Amino acid sequence: MSSSALVSAVRGQPDYQNPAAVLQGVRDALARLHLPPDFIRPGDRVVLKPNWVKEHDERRPGPDAWEHVVTHPAVIEATLRWVAPQLQGRGSIVICDAPQTDSSFATLRKYCQLDSMIQACRRDFPGLTLDLLDLRPEEWHAVDGVTVSKTILPGDPLGSTQVALDAASEFVGFSGCGRLYGASYDMAETNSRHQGSRHDYLLCRTPMEADVFINLPKLKTHKKVGITCALKNLVGINANKNWLPHHTEGTPSQGGDQFPADTTKARLEHSWMGTAKRLLKNSPTLSRFFVPLKKAGRLIFGDTQEVVRSGNWHGNDTCWRMVLDLNKALFAFDGLGRPRALPRRYLAIVDGIIGGEGNGPMAPDPRPCGVLLAGTHPLAVDCAAATLMGFEWNKIRMLKGGFGMRAPHFTDFDPKDLRVSSNHQPWDRALVDVHETFDFRPHFGWVGVIETRPRKA
Questions:
Q1: Number of other CB atoms surrounding residue 135 within 10 Å
Q2: DSSP string, 26-51
Q3: Residue 13 CA to chain centroid, in angstroms?
Q4: Which uninterrupted H or E stretch holds 133?
Q5: What predicted TM-score, i.e. pTM, was given to this entire model?
Q6: CA pair distance 95, 118, nearest whole angstrom
Q7: Which letter does DSSP use for residue 264 in this model?
Q8: How many CB atoms lie within 10 A of CB 185?
Q9: What is the C-alpha to C-alpha distance for residues 60 and 155, in angstroms, rounded to an integer?
Q10: Among candidate residues 14, 9, 132, the one with its CA nearest the CA of residue 74
């Protein structure tokens, strides 16, 4: 069995207010992986990549509604304190992410008290270079979900790297090319990067040049791909998120996955929104006038927290392809966009102390689990995470597709090889034999499709 197929799951973690116990939990989870003694080497450039998608729950803005949305600083600091001594005063640790473009990094920094964490670690590990980065090139200011202005940011100090996956992309031959929707109204930009045999991504060089990449995702449901864990967390290493296809415009009869059914209302909304997107893509001024129109549209077409649109359902055949492409780029290419000469040293540590269920990733309900997961392969970690959440991993396109990727693929094991090492006896076995789960509630666009067993009424 490949060591990549092993995932550790340590249960019984206390709340986040006990940093020493969280640190011990991280160490226990990593000890079960039996990492090589030189996995971290003096002088290494180490990147810690948390999930900082949004500074708070979309439904409840404020300083007390983020612990179930983002990777908790206690888990980040525990990982940092595991890494730092192994560097022996040489090398660097960079904590970085590119949150959702309309998120406030300043607010997240304040809520999570990131600056005090960094100061404490710099004091305890003198001589070690330690940085905190917002990788985004710009931050958008949105009113009711409508972008009305943009602020230019420094972005990654090392710049960006264009990775041409081309024939290796999961979008080769995809029927949705030409109608792909990215992160903004400018669909032309998205589709210019994904056409025929051309498939490009613009990635930040700091994570791409790391000697060791440590992924620190949150255990949450996701509206477009089912779960957001290790694989999906790579959206946050992008320098231009509009190069990332999120769904295919149109109804199913039109070859799209924007909506789940060919209803009159869906076709009307598609037509109306398509016109609005073309008008608004280059005009923040017009965007401000769109805000009241969007409110009126919500009354007609329904709220996104209750109605499936924008590919937020199990039939999304677009977003999972992008997620696998990003992971392929990280594993197969270096900081200059060239094929890697040496294997990527990769580790994932999942914050499941408080997870998020329901309308993830930005409006989930808190789900205390007291668990930390760890592994050296994102697909293995996500299959284990989905199973423990109470989902059939092979009914999630992103995970099933990970075992059938185009070459060069980065998966060196079969599904039957997946195994969990745990301090919780019902989990300490082959993944296929794990039956005790948390029974997470999926996003409503996935209900009834991926659950291992029906939820109790």
A1: 28
A2: HHHHHHTTT--TTSS-TT-EEEEEE-
A3: 23
A4: strand 129-134
A5: 0.94
A6: 10
A7: H
A8: 22
A9: 28
A10: 14
| pLDDT of the chain, 457 residues: tens digit per residue | 689 999 999 999 888 999 999 999 999 999 999 999 999 999 999 999 999 999 999 888 889 999 999 999 999 999 999 999 999 999 999 999 999 999 999 999 999 999 999 999 999 999 999 999 999 999 988 666 666 678 999 999 999 999 999 999 999 999 999 999 999 889 999 999 999 999 999 999 999 999 999 999 999 999 999 999 999 999 999 999 999 999 999 999 999 999 999 887 877 777 766 666 665 556 555 656 555 656 655 656 677 778 888 999 999 999 999 999 999 999 999 999 999 998 999 999 999 999 999 999 999 999 999 999 999 999 999 999 999 999 999 999 999 999 999 988 889 999 999 999 999 999 999 999 999 999 999 999 999 999 998 765 4
User: Which tokens belong to 102?
Assistant: 């309309």
b/e code 381-394 from CB counts within 10 Å (16+ = b):
bbbbbbbbbbbbbe
SS3 label, residue 81: helix
Residue-range domain boundaries for the chain: 3-141+149-166+197-246+313-433
Name the fold adopted by 3-141+149-166+197-246+313-433. Rossmann fold (3.40.50)
Find out whether 367 and 438 touch, Cβ atoms under 8 Å: yes
215: its two tokens: 């992924």
User: Token pair of 126, please?
Assistant: 């003198």
List the structure tokens of 172. 């080769």
Task: Classify burial at 212, counting beta carbons within 10 Å of its beta carbon; exposed 0-12, middle 13-18, buried 19 or more.
Answer: buried
Q: Is-contact 377 347, C-beta < 8 A?
A: no
- Cα separation values, 7 from 30, 38, 386, 432, 449, Å: 9, 20, 12, 13, 25
Q: Cβ of 104: how many Cβ atoms within 10 Å?
A: 15
